[in-house]
Amino acid sequence: MVEASVLEEQCSRTLLDTDFPEFGKRVPGKVRDAYLQSGRRLLLATDRISAFDVIVGTIPFKGQLLNQLAAFWFERTRMVARNHLLAVPDPAVSVVQECRVLPVEFVVRGYLAGVSDTSIWTAYARGEREYCGHRLPEGLRKNDRLPEPILTPTTKAPRGRHDELASRAGLLSSGAISEAHFDAAERIALDLFAEGTAWAEKQGLILVDTKYEIGLDPEGELCVVDEIHTSDSSRYWHRKGYEQSLEADRNPKALDKEYVRTWLVDRGYRGDGDPPELPENVRCEAARRYIEAYERITGSPFEPSLEEPEARIRENLRDFSSQKV
Questions:
Q1: Rounded alpha-carbon distances, angstroms, from residue 270 to 51, 132, 216, 252, 265
Q2: Which residues are CB-neighbours of 225 under 8 A, at least 6 positions away?
Q3: Rounded CA gap, 315 and 308, in Å?
Q4: Which domains does the chain carry?
Q5: Phi then psi for 76, rounded to 5 degrees?
Q6: Residue 109 in contact with residue 150, Cβ under 8 Å?
Q7: Is the distance from CB of 108 to CB of 189 less than 8 angstroms?
């Protein structure tokens, strides 16, 4: 585990934005900035953290952790589904194949959890028993395991706007996606979730829910893009103590950014207006949890780069580009 003093020092040199025009046209995202090149793109994972589809601050080493954990999962799941990863030339950068991303986020849920206004638990607590086209049984408690994992898709909103819950029937009727693409992507998402669930269990964790982005590669084949099973796209709980938490009506101990989301909710923020500023102790605790998640999931220690991030990225990408020529 990285020492607390290192986390505190890194708070003053997190990577909030990127500016590398020499590497292509920049396309900013919520957390990653993409640089478009011929047939491929560079994905730079910043230290930004989002909650309720809003950028709420930065977390020390988050970009490095996010990028390296995504690379771990892309390599581990190549036998389950095709993905876009080509190379990792820097701790916070991935080189990926250019794909046309489907206009749907494929969210898979295994548990009745969440605190947002659109979460499955919030809907269930309101008395709703149909969620994204799935019928939910009576008698479930908060954080209970669902009878089986379910796909609860959302639309993909532009940056600064909120994704919206959807269903297979609604997406097909709107023409947002074809039936063939939706059904094939659903199979991929559920297979990936099963693989992630099995691995997490071996590591003493529970993969609660996650989201996948899927696109079409140049050959028209479905290809998983963006990230898989990271602490940004997924919710993890510790398996130890889960049953006791249920009985005591407490939230299970988590390893993901739900900590930051809960901190915001406790202060009355749910995505509307300007978020409260994250204090240093919250940023460091979030970083500690990201690091713990990385090490628990991969089984390997996290080795952070302490170099100034922009100079390091520029040098590593320049070296990578020269090798590819």
A1: 8, 21, 34, 21, 6
A2: 83, 84, 96, 99, 101, 213, 214, 215
A3: 11
A4: 4-324 (3.30.470.20)
A5: -70, -30
A6: yes
A7: yes
Return the axis-axis angle of helices 280-298 and 258-266, rounded to nearest 10°: 150
Question: Counting beta carbons within 10 angstroms of the beta carbon of residue 75, is it exposed (0 to 12), middle (13 to 18) or buried (19 or more)?
Answer: exposed
Tokens 């954080």 belong to which residue? 143
Phi, psi of 71 (to 5 degrees): -65, -40
Give the mean pLDDT of 145-155: 97
**126-133 contacts at long range (C-beta below 8 A, 24 or more positions apart):** 131/165, 132/165, 132/166, 132/167, 133/167, 133/168, 133/169, 133/170
Q: What angle do CA 43, 45, 50 make, to 5 degrees?
A: 125
Question: Is the confidence at residue 12, as pLDDT, over 70?
Answer: yes
The predicted model scores a pTM of 0.90
**What residue has token string 């206004």?**
117
The burial of 43, by beta-carbon neighbours within 10 Å (0-12 exposed, 13-18 middle, 19 or more buried), is given as buried
230: closest CA among 65, 89, 41?
65
Question: What stretches of the chain adopt beta strand conformation (E)?
Answer: 25-28, 32-37, 40-45, 48-51, 54-58, 85-90, 93-97, 100-101, 104-111, 130-131, 134-135, 145-151, 154-155, 205-216, 222-225, 234-238
Cα distances from 78 to residues 45, 81, 154, 217, 285, in angstroms, run 21, 5, 25, 15, 32
User: Which two structure tokens, joined as six digits, stand for 83?
Assistant: 């993905």
Residue 66 and residue 92: Cα distance in Å, rounded? 8
Q: How confident is the model at residue 52 (pLDDT cuts 50, 70, 90)?
A: confident
pLDDT digits (tens, 9 = 90+) for 225-278: 999 999 889 999 999 999 999 999 999 998 767 789 889 999 999 889 999 999
Give the integer Cα–Cα distance in Å for 142 and 58.
30
> Cβ of 136: how many Cβ atoms within 10 Å?
16
